[in-house]
Specification:
This protein has 683 residues and is an alpha+beta fold. The protein contains 22 helices and 22 strands. The chain has four domains: 2-220, Heat Shock Protein 90 (2-Layer Sandwich), CATH 3.30.565.10; 228-358, Ribosomal Protein S5, domain 2 (2-Layer Sandwich), CATH 3.30.230; 393-482, Rossmann fold, CATH 3.40.50.11260; 495-598 and 637-682, Four Helix Bundle (Hemerythrin (Met), subunit A) (Up-down Bundle). Bound molecules: adenosine-5'-diphosphate (ADP) and magnesium ion (MG).
């Protein structure tokens, strides 16, 4: 019998393991089962090279519980170990400064194991004693029994195994009795070992008999040894991909499409990524993609490994080249990971491009469902954005789809403004903005539909990416001004008319909560609406952004401010103007002259003052004049307001414009209806 001390450089590795790895005790099972699988694979390899000539037999891994003995055993029929192997691989833990290292990375300690040869020792997280019974595949090998009770001392002795392979027997300690429960073990095996390449057997299949489940004599295999992502894409049908998807994510709708990843160089990576249907409930779940390392499940949190926007996808990535032994922040700056991430991005983009090229109409059908994903990708990943410009589709309010090039060709001739910018018009709510869309269409303009949650940002992205292109919401100005092709035609109003009309209209705008209206005048076409309500593009964008970002509440709290644009060329407006001229000019004229004269006098006094200083007398004069101006102004205002009260036409025109924008509600709406009825009666 051999006795010895386990060759770790620290005094005693076990307390370290127990102390730092307390949170993830369960991974010991993953480590032991994957060792057993490794040993089995090694034997297969040796056999295929002719280095092992014996019978392979049934190569499986068994996990069994003996409750009475308090043991959990992982058995394999792999290469086994000689005493020499045990010395080399188990007794010498090639690990320097283990304690220091674990202390540094204690959060990620579970992923360190296995990558530093500590895998086997993780058994001591749950066991007070571990026994290895093993027999090497080599000819003439002797069985060996290794035993260790968690102190650095071990014993090695002649073993009892008669068949090639290894048993790892764990004497589960009192704190970890849960690992003697079949259900717990089965759950863990399902989690970590579901796709291991060697059959893993745990207990028996059960069947329903006489009102309860009973064991059959068939072994229960917990894993699928050949997961789809390890196969060649050419060997898989669409149904295979869909079946695999539903196996991974039971109870979900079919995915829209998928991408089979398969690279050997400069890193090894396989996997299948699925595009689920996301639509508009925009929740980025972080656990959609599972990460595997040689078919061993590692984690569901793939941040840093795949680009952020791919978090919307589902599926599996398998790569032995992702360094799991380091912290996440390091991961993000790791060049291997960066390469992997940019490879995946490229692959996703080129797959989308292929789909687009292969079947445009099918791509269009799926577009609404994948749009959110693509926009999100474009906004967060510059490279993806550039690639996506090739297959990005724009949809107009009639439901037609265009590529960027097609759209430019479509609108270039008719929608280029005087300044050389091509103006893309868009609507965010086709029902509410119906009249604006119609007005634009009547002018031969196309209107895009941008009603998605990220379209605020998308609009700005497009303006950045497309040359000499401007995006303008269809209701942000009257149709004549949306795309300015010639100098603006000035409204045909004298200063007095402008002054009267401003008061006339603004005094009749009903109160709308959290909303302000400014009145302006434009000479539009006589057939355009008499009044159009617009909302400034810039202000609206700011407000929209504010609702999505905290810290911009300044804009968010501002009232909505609309422009009430009065069309001075409209016959009804002209009639209002002429009527007001007749009724008010004679009275307003002298008041306006007073204001003008008094203002001129004030100016003259100020100019004449020496060193800009007024004498006491001059001060008095100025303040008297100012008072007179204010009085004349308010008198004029009162005159016009009183007059306006009786002007049903003005009220009616304003209310109609409000009505067209859904801004006429409650009491003002009912007043509008009553007024309409009485106006009809008068006719
Ligand atoms: P790793 O698996 O990363 O090499 P482990 O601590 O898990 O580190 O295992 C150490 C070594 O012990 C393995 O590399 C292997 O040589 C040997 N070993 C462990 N378990 C078995 C087994 N079931 N059969 C044969 N060899 C084993
Ligand atoms: Mg291992």
């Amino acid at each position: 019998m051999q006795k010895g001390t386990i060759g770790v450089t620290t005094e005693n590795i076990f307390p370290v393991i127990k102390k730092f790895l307390y949170s993830d005790h369960e991974i010991f099972l993953r480590e032991l089962v994957s060792n057993a699988v490794d040993a089995t694979q090694k034997l297969r390899t040796l056999s295929s090279f002719g280095d092992f000539k014996g019978e392979l037999g049934e190569l499986d891994v068994r996990v069994s519980i003996d409750k009475e003995a308090g043991t959990l055993t992982v058995s394999d029929r792999g290469v086994g170990m000689t005493a020499e192997d045990l010395n080399k691989y188990i007794n010498q833990i090639a690990f320097s400064g283990a304690e220091e290292f674990l202390a540094k990375f204690k959060d990620k300690a579970n992923t360190i194991i296995g990558h530093f040869g500590l895998g086997f020792y993780s058994a001591f997280m749950v066991a007070k004693k571990v026994v290895i019974e093993t027999l090497s595949y080599q000819e003439g090998a002797e069985p060996v029994r290794w035993e260790c009770d968690g102190s650095p001392e071990f014993t090695m002795d002649k073993g009892s195994r008669t068949e090639r392979g290894t048993d790892i027997i764990l004497y589960i300690d009192d704190d970890n009795k849960e690992f003697l429960e079949q259900l717990r073990i089965d759950t863990l095996l399902k989690k970590y070992c579901r796709f291991l390449p060697v059959p893993v057997i745990s207990g028996k299949e059960q069947e329903w008999k006489d009102g309860k489940y009973v064991d059959t004599d068939r072994d229960l295999v917990v894993n699928a040894t050949e997961p789809q992502w390890m196969k060649k894409p050419a060997d898989l049908t669409d149904k295979d991909y869909l079946d695999f998807y539903h196996e991974l994510y039971p109870g979900q709708d079919d995915p829209l499409f998928w991408i089979h990843l398969n690279v050997d160089f400069p890193f090894t990576l396989t996997g299948i990524l699925y595009f689920p249907k996301i639509k508009n409930n925009f929740d980025i779940r972080k656990d959609r993609i599972s990460l595997y390392c040689n078919q061993v499940y590692v984690t569901d949190s793939v941040e840093g490994v795949v680009p952020e926007f791919m978090m919307l996808m589902q599926g599996v990535i398998d790569s032995p080249d992702i360094p799991l032994n380091v912290s996440r922040s390091y991961l993000q700056s790791d060049t291997a990971v960066k390469k992997i991430s940019s490879y995946i991005t490229k692959k996703v983009a080129s797959r989308l491009e292929d789909l687009f090229k292969a079947d445009r109409s099918d791509f269009e059908k799926k577009w609404d469902d994948i749009r959110l994903f693509i926009i999100y990708g474009m906004l967060t990943d510059e490279k993806f954005c550039d690639a996506a410009m090739k297959f990005l589709l724009l949809k107009d309010t009639e439901g037609k789809y265009f590529t960027l090039d097609e759209y430019k060709t479509l609108v270039e001739a008719n929608q280029t403004a005087k300044d050389g910018n091509i103006v893309y018009l868009y609507a965010t709510d086709p029902t509410a903005q119906y009249t604006y869309i119609k007005a634009a269409n009547d002018k031969g303009y196309n209107v895009l539909l941008l009603d998605g949650q990220l379209d605020n940002h998308f609009v700005q992205l497009m303006e950045r990416k497309l040359e000499k292109t401007q995006l303008v919401r269809v209701d942000s100005d009257v149709v004549e001004n949306l795309i300015r092709k010639e100098d603006k035609k000035e409204a045909d109003l004298t200063p007095m008319q402008r002054s009267i009309m401003t008061t006339l209209f603004s005094s009749q705008v009903p109160e709308v909560e959290k909303t302000t209206f400014l009145v302006s005048f434009e000479a539009m076409s006589p057939t355009s609406a008499p009044i159009v309500i617009t909302q400034n593009e810039y202000m609206r964008r700011m407000k929209d952004l504010a609702t999505m970002q905290p810290g911009m509440s300044f804009y968010g709290e501002m009232p909505d401010s609309y422009m009430l644009v009065v069309n001075t060329e409209h016959p009804l407006v002209k009639a209002v103007r002429d009527e007001a001229d007749n009724a008010l000019d004679a009275k307003v004229e002298p008041l306006m002259s007073t204001v003008d004269e008094d203002n001129a006098s004030i100016e003259a006094i100020r100019k004449g003052a020496k060193d800009g200083k007024l004498t006491a007398e001059e001060e008095k004069q100025v303040s008297d004049l100012e008072k007179a101006v204010a009085e004349a102004r308010s008198e004029q205002e009162k005159l016009v307001k009183d007059y306006a009260e009786g002007q049903d036409m003005v009220k009616q025109l304003i209310d109609l414009a409000l009505l067209g924008n859904g801004l006429l509600k409650g009491e003002t709406l009912s007043r509008f209806i009553n007024r309409s009825v009485s106006m009809l009666e008068k006719k």
